[in-house]
Amino acid sequence: MKVNPSIERIREVFEYNPEMGTLRWKITNSPRAVAGSIAGTRMKNGYLGVGLDKADHYVHRLAWALTYNRWPFQIDHINNNKADNRLCNLREADFSKNAVNRPIRRDNKSGETGVHFDKSRNQWKVDVGHKTHGRFNSKKEAIKKRRKMAKLAYGEFCYHS
Description:
The chain has about 160 residues and is α+β, with helices and mostly antiparallel strands. The protein folds into two domains: about 5-95, Homing Intron 3 (I-Ppo) Encoded Endonuclease, Chain A (Alpha-Beta Complex); about 105-155. The protein contains four helices and ten strands. It has helices at about 5-15, 60-70, 95-100, 140-155; strands at about 15, 20-25, 40, 50, 55-60, 75, 90-95, 115-120, 125-130, 130-135. The strands form four sheets. The chain has a three-stranded antiparallel β-sheet. A three-stranded antiparallel β-sheet has the order 8-9-10, with helices on one face. The radius of gyration is 20 Å and the shape is elongated. The two termini are about 35 Å apart. The model has no long low-confidence stretch (mean pLDDT about 90).
């Protein structure tokens, strides 16, 4: 299991600009990590990562630790852009809240999470969580209902496509 560096260590090495969402090196750590340069490279999963003390760390977690002087449980990128580490785009979340704010799946055919066409009834079905919230003759009605129910269930973490 990876151990987080101390906040003091992070402060020695990095400077965070919350408006720009950038982490900069304060020291020269390697030929590619020069003092004053932006720290972090895009990883395969879309997040920005940076190496420190022989371990990889997510830039958004380092930014949170520098800003709030503590490590977060999980961080949610509000706009779903994993590389946008501006402080206004980051919020602490638990697993379930973070899971709710996900973009629409590629295999979704309705264009809206939680709205599915029920062929057996020839109607649009609305699901939020594990509960069905009705069936509708039009997709537009179904989307309206889904958004209303999702907002009630998930609050600010609710994602709309």
